[in-house]
Specification:
6-stranded mixed β-sheet, 14% strand, Purple Acid Phosphatase, chain A, domain 2, Flavocytochrome C3, Chain A, domain 2, 452 residues, globular, alpha/beta, 40% helix
Length: 452
């Protein structure tokens, strides 16, 4: 088995949040340690892995001995790569070569003092493939956009697999063949594991999975025939559409498509029954969803626990610093008043709200010992989380949805947001944290509404 990740695993974006640098670095260190424990054979580097600077990643690579690769991230004056460009792993008699490209987008994460640049793949790839001449199977971990990966596959059929990193195309995608290269993409944020079972042979040609292809082509044909029946219902379309060139064109394209599919199906049927000719299927793909309920490996779990504890401690120190600034009178009283103040006049809404999970959102963090973790707080408290919070804001309170209420509380004629729109929820109910949020359904579970 070869375990690879195309990169983009350490940070959420190309840059850190100034006040949270220490916490984000602690989280990245935890991720790298967990990857090492999971015995990854190679990991690519994208801009997101460089957010804390090139020296940070170099130190991390040194400390955690995780095999980071990049062939195109090079020193500006010497052209030498900062990280190994490739590795070869032996599995039995098979030599699997892996190399990685960070891609031009990583340039945005580089600083002048790094003296670094990203070299165009066209210049780098021939040399790396030279290093991997002895490999039987070549895998590219790519930070390049899709179109560039396709161009690379066209030019270098020696690359057998391209595993892609990156945010666009966030979902699991079945392998797609370009010339002799399979392009693979797994969902981001570690929500799934892509598993490709490969049967390799000396021909180094991917065969086609004819049985699956045949099923696909048959259902495509069904669809085309269904459309054609629609056209033919009122008579011969060639006559009917005489004066409607657009419709006639569409109809003729369908006819041509039908012929093409019929020929393809005939070929596949023939080859399947004869079982001759080109090689048998070589790659079977599946995706494993990594549900939160799956048990963790104990060593990895220990890393996660240690990391979240460190993050909480760092957050606590930050909160202390804010509190001292508050004492010195640096920050003025904000526009938020907290739910108790609202409860004074909106008794019924407040009684309902107190029963809801929103009211207990901070307690939830406390129970997990994450109440100072600045990466959790924004969605589990009211308002910006970086200030030392009074108790009345330690919940997803009224003002999380209805907006700041100081002016309204002092003078109820000043308006509040009366009907918080979907946007006001979606900042917290993101697909990452709540993957089946539905505003039109879930707003009715908000107890505020039952009052009316
Ligand atoms: C001093 C009493 C008082 C306080 C404190 C108060 N409200 Fe109100 N609120 C009112 C009154 C009275 C109205 C009705 C105003 C009207 O109809 O013009 C109102 C109306 C509202 C409305 C409906 C708005 C509308 O246009 O009908 C919302 C939502 C609301 N308040 C939320 C809050 C929230 C949230 C807080 C705390 C941040 C809060 N209120 C604090 C007295 C108060
Ligand atoms: C500031 C962040 C935030 C905002 C804004 C927010 N939520 Fe939530 N919501 C949460 C959190 C966090 C929880 C889970 C709390 C817990 O269990 O500790 C939650 C829980 C819920 C639940 C489960 C409630 C229950 O009692 O079972 C519903 C439903 C919900 N939210 C709907 C909404 C809707 C609708 C909106 C917008 C009108 C909204 N939320 C706005 C953070 C938020
Ligand atoms: C982007 C907003 C957001 C962030 C950041 C966030 N949460 Fe949440 N969290 C939510 C929402 C929304 C829910 C409610 C989800 C639901 O009802 O399914 C929730 C629910 C929870 C729950 C209750 C889960 C359950 O099903 O009982 C826990 C525990 C929790 N969050 C812990 C954390 C911790 C720890 C962090 C930081 C590492 C964190 N959250 C960061 C939005 C967030
Ligand atoms: C999670 C988001 C959320 C929280 C928290 C929340 N509300 Fe609401 N509130 C709503 C929504 C959504 C409506 C309904 C708007 C509609 O009818 O579409 C509403 C309705 C109301 C109304 C009625 C407004 C009207 O149309 O007359 C009042 C008053 C109100 N909320 C006050 C409060 C108070 C006070 C609190 C805190 C104790 C609170 N809300 C907490 C989302 C929230």
């Amino acid at each position: 088995m070869v375990a690879v990740d195309a990169g983009g695993l350490l940070f959420k974006s190309n840059a850190l949040t100034p006040e949270l640098t220490a916490q984000e670095q602690a989280a990245a260190t935890g991720v790298a340690e967990a990857y090492r424990l999971m015995r990854y054979d190679a990991v690519g580097i994208t801009g997101q892995d460089l957010a804390a600077g090139l020296p940070f990643l170099q130190q991390l690579a040194h400390r955690t001995a995780l095999p980071w690769l990049s062939a195109d991230l090079v020193q500006r004056n010497t052209g030498k790569p900062f990280f190994p460009a490739s590795v070869i792993k032996k599995i039995g008699n098979l030599r699997v070569g892996v190399f990685a490209l960070s891609g031009p987008a990583a340039t945005a994460a580089l600083r002048p003092e790094d003296q670094a640049m990203v070299q165009p793949w066209q210049e780098v790839v021939p040399g790396v493939l030279g290093q991997l001449k002895k490999a039987d199977l070549v895998i590219l971990l790519s930070g390049l956009p899709t179109a560039e990966n396709e161009a690379l596959a066209q030019r270098h059929p020696e690359v057998d697999l391209i595993v892609r990193a990156g945010d666009d195309g966030a979902s699991n995608q079945p392998p797609r063949q370009v010339r002799n290269t399979l392009l693979l993409q797994t969902e981001k944020q570690g929500k799934s594991l892509g598993v490709l079972d490969i049967q390799w042979n000396a021909s180094r040609q991917w065969g086609e999975d004819r049985a699956t292809l045949l099923t696909t082509k048959r259902s495509e044909l069904d669809q085309v025939e269904w459309f054609l029946r629609g056209h033919g219902r009122k008579g011969d379309p060639e006559m009917l559409y005489q004066n409607e060139p657009a419709k006639l064109k569409a109809y003729r394209e369908l006819v041509a498509e039908k012929q093409r599919l019929e020929e393809e199906i005939k070929r596949l049927n023939g080859e399947l029954t004869k079982g001759t000719g080109r090689p048998e299927p070589l790659a079977k793909n599946r995706f494993l969803a990594l549900y939160a309920e799956l048990p963790d490996q104990p060593a990895v779990q220990a890393v996660v626990e240690r990391t979240t504890k460190t993050m909480n401690q760092l957050g606590q120190e930050l909160a202390k610093r804010h509190l001292e600034q508050d004492k010195k009178g640096i920050s003025a009283p904000g526009p938020l008043v907290g739910w108790q103040r609202c409860a004074g006049c909106h008794r019924a809404e407040a009684d309902f709200w107190r029963q809801s999970r929103h009211a207990k959102a901070y307690a939830t963090l406390r129970a997990k010992n994450q109440q100072f973790n600045q990466t959790c707080l924004p969605c589990h408290v009211t308002g910006p989380a970086s200030t030392a919070m009074p108790e009345s804001l330690q919940a997803v309170g009224c003002e999380s949805c209805h907006g700041p209420g100081r002016e309204h509380s002092n003078d109820p004629k000043r308006p509040m947001v009366k009907q918080p729109p979907a946007q006001s929820c979606l900042g917290c109910h993101t697909p990452e944290h709540d993957d089946n949020f539905d505003f039109s359904r879930d707003r009715h579970r908000l107890n505020c509404i039952h009052v009316r």
